[in-house]
Design goal:
The complex is a heterotrimer of chains A (311), B (339) and C (309).
Chain A lengths: L4 H5 L16 H18 L1 H23 L31 H37 L1 H14 L4 H12 L4 H9 L4 H15 L2 H8 L4 H37 L11 H10 L6 H28 L7
Helix pairs in contact in A: 2-12, 3-4, 3-12, 4-5, 4-7, 4-8, 4-10, 4-11, 4-12, 6-7, 8-10, 9-10, 10-11, 10-12, 11-12
Chain B lengths: L3 E11 L4 E12 L4 E5 L6 H9 L7 E10 L2 E2 L5 H7 L4 E4 L3 H4 L6 H12 L4 H14 L5 H4 L9 H13 L5 E5 L7 H18 L2 E6 L2 H7 L2 E6 L2 E7 H6 L4 H6 L9 H4 L43 E4 L2 E3 L20
Helix pairs in contact in B: 4-5, 5-7, 7-8
Chain C lengths: L1 H27 L15 H10 L6 H13 L14 H36 L4 H15 L2 H15 L13 H30 L2 H8 L4 H38 L5 H10 L3 H29 L1 H7 L1
Helix pairs in contact in C: 1-11, 4-5, 4-7, 4-9, 4-11, 5-7, 6-7, 6-9, 7-9, 8-9, 9-10, 9-11, 10-11, 11-12
Classes of the chains: A mainly alpha (311), B alpha/beta (339), C mainly alpha (309).
Chain lengths: 311, 339, 309
């Protein structure tokens, strides 16, 4: 080991470990952990910038449709296919609708589906992963073997089949389609985390004093996977957002009149020769969101787990 | 002239928090065929000193800001990287603390030994393999010929350290630097690895620098001992002299002779631990760096405002302290220690 | 090692069976009827005959068993919609193009992504590193349909480089789709290689290699690169999924008659046997790729061999 003088000489933070018998001490250590993590996150300039842009993007999608002077669905062919200008910062689409307003509306749909599917993915992942990791033994082995099997499922074809099953594609159809073949990784992460935590002294101590298994799981194991789950949100989000966009783009997205960014891009695809900005605007919105999510995930990973980086 | 002369070496780390004086004006020399022990607790700069000699400090953030490392007449700090590469492994070899991570897990140990030989000597693959088997036998790895094509994970910690030693010896270096060679090993294995090192040093007529935090390790192996604290040499003497008549309060502490501040340790007959921590090496105050932990220093002392010089208290016995044993009043034991 | 490979190969058989079963189960949930063209109802008699012809009147497990048997003999059955066409014919016609597209894109991603990441890591925190990583992060985030559309817009419409905008014939028609499809995986590889290389450079055994006096070039090419490529190999599996997903978009935009494009058509036409066949085909490809990845991993990292055998 190269001696890292910054490590060697830094005065260790006073981390008075909670005595083993006093498991109630864990939450106190937790709040310090979060404060520390937050401080570390703020030190990462890229992550802070990404976080700010992300919040702005969410606020824009949430608020702008109420404030906008334009009706997002009002067709006016006199205004069609205008490039970005002062009145329409993102230009207008093939029907003369204001793209700045429609992008905000599309963002609501895309992000709604994105967060919805991410939530479902994490819920399944937590359920599957924590049972597998907590019970261990043969069940764990079998469940992990099954998970290995599922890794053979190609993501998009299965999403497409699900949309075909439901026939009429709605918000929830989309959520199911996008999560059905993408929860495997989150299940693995949760399992890994639960297994690591299971070996921790305070969990052993809790077991030793006779805490019931669901109490150990609910009170000690799951709260401590929270950090990993928060990271997982931002790791899963890009894939889901992109998946929705691709399904919509190839014509299997949710039914009109609701427009997602993917559908806007598909509309733009039809007229890209005369008005390339119509496909560019929603695509750049998607790219921005994904870029932010990636940097936020990186920042969170460094902040919450400064030593071990996922390989 | 000595084989290695380190003069006023200073290696600093340039970090976001500031300039860390990891090695701060270190001077010592190693004669041909002799062993120097460098002792100190972790973070005292002993490993950085070794890496500075090898030219292996991580750059950035570290940089040799002053001093020279003269090996066999040439200043290594001024050599271009290519010339240093020719020297490393050939003239100066090094083994590291953790044998579990010091070998490449994806390459056979045979390859890791022979690539060193073939780097420095113009020999065929077969000859290099033969030489590698001889080396493994020399470091007492059982069934050496069969184990050449094994990967490191099949070896125990002690065996891996033997492989590291074989690599280090492969080109008959003039100087071997062993950085905590036994710290990561089981206690039972430590002694045998140390014996092996000592035997090999005599057989190969090498000079050796052995770096450790454990006085017991250097007691047998070393001719001279340098005690480092917070980037500086605080005491430097022959091994006999240092163990018989330690002068610096820190050396005393390392030898377990320092009176405890709290009686607990003595009562339980435990080895003494030194209360407190080494100072921050970013902009350290102009004072003795040991003063905050020194049981003999008080606020009125000059050593809390001035850095004591490294002075020759007896012939060939150097110490950096305002309160060396021989200048203290009364006997060591039984003195009331000011808190 | 041989034992490990044999075991690993045999393990793919149950995996394929389960994946076929899952696909099969899902497909059965789809409502709608391929034979019912437009509004006109099909007489019950004919419907029954059709069902019998395609074995749809049997219980599900018999259908499954029959299907598995057919798949094992490389027979994916007839198309339900196109008369006189087998799924095999469709695969034979469309799959080679998709395979070529995906393969070339993968190659492109490897050939450009790994050096980009390696240079970034070796020149960490230089302007070159920043530029490469900016490019990689953006390239990773931009949806492939924008990349493809912009390629056509700029390289064909604005400045004519002589690339056609559609089809899959000469090499000119392949350049843009391959780059558009390979860009995101390339960016992913670059980011990954940079990260793992920076980590590998910190390892103790790299310091050992330098302490042995090895030339910097050899330290990098043997010790650093070899160990940094292990995560790249493991990432190849997900990358394949990436390529399959991307090919659906790219084939549509560049009008390449490949599997991805046909898949969408088949879903819309409710041609279940084709959808089923193509899904199984894609799944088998993913499974085989995972197999190859595991074996390569075993070769690159000797530690895993001992654990598994």
């Amino acid at each position: 080991m190269v001696v890292d003088p910054t490590q060697a000489t830094r005065r260790p933070v006073d981390t008075a470990a909670a005595p083993a018998h006093e498991t109630a001490g864990a939450p106190i250590a937790q709040s310090n952990l979060w404060k520390d993590a937050w401080r570390r996150y703020l030190r990462n300039r890229a992550a802070v910038l990404a976080g700010s842009v992300f919040v702005l993007l969410v606020l824009y999608c949430a608020i702008w449709p109420f404030v906008s002077p334009y009706d997002p669905n009002e067709v006016d062919f006199a205004l069609k296919n205008q490039g970005p200008n002062l009145e329409h910062p993102f230009g207008t689409d093939n029907f003369g609708r204001d793209l700045f307003t429609r992008t905000a509306l599309g963002g609501r749909v895309s992000m709604g589906i994105g967060f919805g599917a991410t939530l479902v993915i994490l819920l399944i992942g937590v359920a599957y992963g924590s049972i597998s990791g907590f019970v261990g033994g043969k069940l764990d082995n079998g469940m992990m073997r099954f998970l290995d099997t599922l890794y053979g499922l190609p993501y998009l074809p299965f999403a497409i089949i699900v949309t075909a099953i439901f026939g009429n594609v709605t918000f929830w159809t989309m959520v199911v389609a996008l999560s059905i073949a993408s929860w495997f990784t989150s299940a693995r992460i949760v399992r890994g985390q639960v297994i690591t935590l299971k070996e921790n002294d305070y969990v052993r101590a809790a077991k030793a004093v006779g805490a019931r298994w669901f109490r150990v799981l609910a009170r000690h194991l799951l709260p401590n996977t929270l950090g990993v789950l928060i990271i997982a949100i931002f790791l899963e989000l890009p894939g889901v957002i992109l998946g929705e966009a691709i399904l919509s783009f190839i014509g299997l997205g949710i039914s009109p009149p609701d427009a997602s960014w993917g559908q806007m891009a598909q509309e733009g695809r039809l007229v890209y020769r005369v008005a390339p900005h119509i496909i560019a605007v929603p695509s750049i919105a998607i790219a921005t969101l994904i870029l932010c999510a990636n940097f936020i995930a990186d920042g969170l990973r460094d902040a919450l787990d400064p030593r071990t980086r996922e390989t | 002239m000595a084989l290695l002369e380190v003069n006023d070496l200073s290696t600093h780390f340039f970090t976001r928090e500031g300039e860390v004086r990891a090695v701060d004006g270190v001077t010592f020399s190693v004669e041909r065929g002799k062993t120097l022990g460098i002792v100190g607790e972790s973070g005292c700069g002993k490993s950085v000193t070794a890496l500075s000699i090898m030219g292996l400090i991580p750059r950035p953030p570290a940089k040799i800001v002053a001093g020279s490392v003269v090996f066999d007449g040439q200043d290594l700090t001024k050599l271009p990287e290519k010339r240093l590469e020719d020297l490393r492994g050939r003239e100066i070899a090094m083994i590291f603390q953790d044998p579990m991570t010091s070998l490449n897990p994806t390459l056979t140990i045979g390859l890791q030994i022979t690539e060193t030989i073939r780097r420095h000597y113009d020999v065929s693959k077969q000859d290099a393999r033969k030489k590698a088997i001889e080396l493994l036998e020399e470091v007492r790895v059982p069934r050496a010929a069969n184990r050449l094509d094994d990967y490191p994970h099949r070896f125990s910690g002690g065996m891996r350290q033997r492989v590291m030693i074989a690599i280090a010896l492969s080109c008959d270096p003039k100087l071997l630097i062993a950085d905590e060679p036994t710290t990561a090993l089981d206690v039972t294995v430590q002694a045998s690895v140390l014996d092996l090192l000592d035997d090999l040093r005599h057989e190969h007529d090498m000079a050796m620098i052995i770096i450790t935090h454990d006085m017991g390790v250097v007691a047998e192996a070393a001719d001279d001992i340098v005690v480092m604290y917070a980037g500086q040499i605080v005491e430097h003497a022959g091994v006999q002299e240092l163990f018989d008549r330690p002068e610096h309060p820190y050396t005393e502490a390392l030898l377990g002779a320092l009176p405890q501040l709290e009686g607990e340790g003595i009562r339980e007959g435990r080895l003494t631990a030194i209360p407190g921590r080494p100072p921050d090496l970013i902009n350290p105050p102009p004072a003795c760096r040991f003063a905050p932990r020194c049981p003999y220093a008080n606020e009125n002392d000059t050593c809390t405002t001035h850095m004591p010089e490294l002075r020759e208290i007896r012939p060939n016995h150097w110490v950096r302290s305002a309160h060396p044993v021989s200048e203290r009043e009364g006997s060591r034991l039984g003195t009331e220690v000011p808190v | 090692m041989t034992k490990f490979i044999v075991r690993r190969v045999f393990w793919t058989i149950p995996v394929i069976l389960v994946v076929i079963l899952l696909t099969f189960g899902l497909m059965r949930q789809i409502k709608g009827n391929p034979f019912r063209t437009s509004e006109r109802a099909i007489p019950a008699e004919i419907q029954r005959n059709l069902d019998r012809k395609f074995g749809l009147d049997k219980p599900w497990y018999e259908q499954y068993a029959r299907y598995v048997k057919n798949v094992a003999t490389f027979d994916l059955g007839p198309s339900l919609v196109l008369r006189n066409r087998d799924v095999n014919d469709i695969v034979k016609e469309h799959f080679p193009r998709s395979l070529e597209l995906g393969g070339l894109a993968f190659l492109f991603a490897l050939v450009f992504g790994i050096p980009l990441g390696a240079v970034s890591a070796l020149k960490a925190n230089s302007w070159l590193d920043y530029a490469a990583m900016f490019f990689s992060n953006v390239g990773f985030a931009i949806p492939s349909f924008l990349v493809a559309t912009l390629f056509i817009y700029f390289f064909v419409l604005q400045f004519d480089f002589g690339f056609p905008t559609s089809g899959w014939t000469g090499w000119e028609s392949k350049v843009l789709p391959v780059v558009a499809l390979g860009l995101a995986p390339m960016a992913a590889f670059a980011r990954l290689v940079r990260g793992t290389m920076l980590e590998t450079l910190q390892q103790d055994y790299i310091r050992t290699a330098r302490a042995k006096g090895l030339r910097w070039r050899r330290v990098i090419s043997l010790h650093v690169l070899r160990n940094s490529l292990i995560p790249v190999v493991t990432a190849a599996g997900p990358t394949l999924g990436f390529l399959i997903t991307g090919s659906f978009v790219i084939e549509q935009i560049f009008a390449i008659p490949g599997v991805g494009r046909y898949y969408v058509t088949a879903v819309q036409a409710r041609d279940y046997s084709v959808v089923m066949g193509l899904t199984v085909l894609l799944a088998v490809i993913v499974i085989v790729a995972n197999l190859v990845v595991d074996i390569l991993y075993g070769i690159l990292d000797p530690r895993t061999r001992d654990v598994r055998t």
